[in-house]
Every structure is written in C-alpha cells, then in structure tokens.
Design goal:
It is globular, with a radius of gyration of 18 Å. The protein has an eight-stranded mixed beta barrel. Strands 8-9-10-11-12-13 form a six-stranded mixed beta sheet. It has helices spanning 27-34, 71-85, 163-173, 213-227, and strands at residues 2-10, 15-18, 44-49, 58-64, 89-96, 103-109, 115-122, 127-135, 138-147, 150-156, 181-188, 193-200, 205-208, 231-237, 240-249, 252-271. It is of the alpha+beta class and 272 residues long. It folds into two domains: 2-120 and 261-271, Diaminopimelate Epimerase, Chain A, domain 1 (Roll), CATH 3.10.310; 127-259, Diaminopimelate Epimerase, Chain A, domain 1.
C-alpha cells in the first residue's frame, strides 16, 4: 500500500497525517505500524477524509487513529491545509473525530512556508472536579477534566514518586468510564512545566508525549477554576511552549484558546 502523508511537529508532538483515503477498519493497524521506530515513527496518526457533517466552509475532516479528539493533530492539519493552499493564513474550519461541531483554527504565516502559528478555539470542559487517586504508592489528589474526545487527570508532579503506578491506579479507578483517550498531566507549578502521558483506547498506545495540546488546555481549565478567574499562561512542555488563554465569566469557563507553532517537517509517500 502506497500512501501520501505529511509529518508535523506541533511542539514536538510528532504527528503523521495520511492524505489518501483508507478504509476506517484499517486505521488502527496502519497507525500501529507507522508509529514504530522502524517506519515513519511518530506519537500519533490521523487520517484526512471528506466531511461527514456537510458543514459549510469546512475544509476537510480529521479522523484520529482511535476516534479521539487531538488538539495538536487538528492544529497540524490546519497548518497543512494552509500550506497546500499557499495562502496568507486566516481561519481554517475543520471537522474532527471526538467533536460534535466543526472547530475553527487561526493560522498565521511565519518566516518559512512550512512553519505556521496555529491557534484553536475549544469549548469548555464537560467537567472539572477534584479526585483522590488510590495506587500502590498511596493516595494522591488530582483534578479530573472531562473534555470532548479525551479525559485528563492533572496532578502535582511533586506529590508523585512512581508515575507509572499512579497511571495504572487512575486507569483502574476510571475503568468503567467511556473514554476514547486518557491523559495524565504531571505539572510542576514552580517550574511551570507540564509532562504529558497519553493513552488511546482503540490502539492501546501509551506515550510520554513531547507536547499535548488538550493536556495544556486541561491544565488551563484547572488553574482558571482554582482562581475563579480568566488566565493567560505560556505552558512549558518537553517539546516547547504553548500559550493558553482561558476565559472565565459568570462563574464558569466560557472558552479556551490555545496557540503555538506547527512545523511541517516532511511530506511524501510511505509504503506499508
């Protein structure tokens, strides 16, 4: 099988976008092969398709390998659409798995044609609540942020000795909940540093990601909820910095805006 692809780096959260039509039942098998070190290698794979909702002005649709919603893959696709159209940037409307409604991405050109600054507007989380996580190393306080397409648990990294034990404790505790994907966000408030661990149900993949857009948004939601106020913050992650703005009005989060650089690092053909 020969497939057209783009590979993007949104804060080093390496993302492969497949531009050719692939049967949906093959998504998982193909993604698992591509993510391996002996192939193109990335942290996640998305498949570009025609729109299914028929939304006017939507460019294309993104189907993630596990049917989840991925902020960085969506931002990557917006960058590629702008790159292919050789435009001056602007609003790129996309459909994506994990979301009911299309999403607007704001694309700005940078010095190179393959570099874009891409912002994305996100709806408020469905739920932000404090939870106590029980694991083999004891009890840890965290905050659960339920979003469309993914659920995150944000914890203070300084309170966790064995991170994988905590992850397995969270998986066990949330076992009965329907989640396309789960992120555990380890946050060091003193350093303003976020380390994302992300699991996708359909592919059963688990990665320490270099950057996680929805995880940064979840952290922003937690901080705004704690302060009960709007916040604007540059969140550091292993792969770079993402800017988060959370709008708090009338006692609740109204919207979240996430912004950062996306680099298109490769395009071409791959073989499976």
């Amino acid at each position: 099988m020969k497939l057209k692809y783009y590979k993007c780096s949104p804060t080093e959260n390496m993302t492969i976008l497949i531009w050719d039509t692939v049967p949906k039942h093959q998504y998982v098998e193909i993604a698992q092969k591509l993510m391996k070190e002996n192939h193109i290698h990335a942290e996640q794979v998305g498949f570009v398709t025609e729109m299914v909702k028929g939304e006017e002005n939507a460019a294309v649709r993104l189907e993630m390998m596990g049917g989840e919603f991925c902020v960085n893959a969506t931002r990557s696709l917006a960058a590629v659409v702008s790159f292919r159209q050789k435009d001056e940037g602007g609003i790129v409307k996309l459909e994506t798995s994990g979301l009911e409604a299309p999403i607007d991405c704001v694309v700005k050109n940078m010095d190179k044609a393959y570099q874009k600054e891409v912002g994305i507007y996100m709806t408020p989380p469905k739920k932000v609540e404090t939870i106590t996580i029980s694991s083999e190393e004891g009890r840890v306080e965290g905050t659960l942020v339920a979003m469309e397409g993914i659920t995150h648990v944000v914890v203070n990294s300084g309170t966790v000795k064995e991170r994988m034990l905590l992850y397995h404790g969270i998986r066990k505790q949330l076992k009965g909940k329907e989640m396309e994907a789960l992120g555990v966000m380890f946050y060091d408030e003193r350093l303003n540093y976020l380390e994302p661990l992300v699991w996708v149900r359909e592919t059963d993949s688990l990665f320490w990601e270099r950057g996680c857009g929805s995880g940064a948004a979840a952290l922003g939601a937690v901080l705004a909820s704690q302060k009960k106020n709007s916040i604007k913050k540059a969140i550091k992650q292993p792969g770079g910095t993402m800017d988060i703005t959370v709008n708090w009005e009338k006692g609740a989060i109204q919207d979240i805006y996430l912004n950062g650089e996306v680099r298109i690092v490769s395009e071409g053909w791959l073989y499976i």
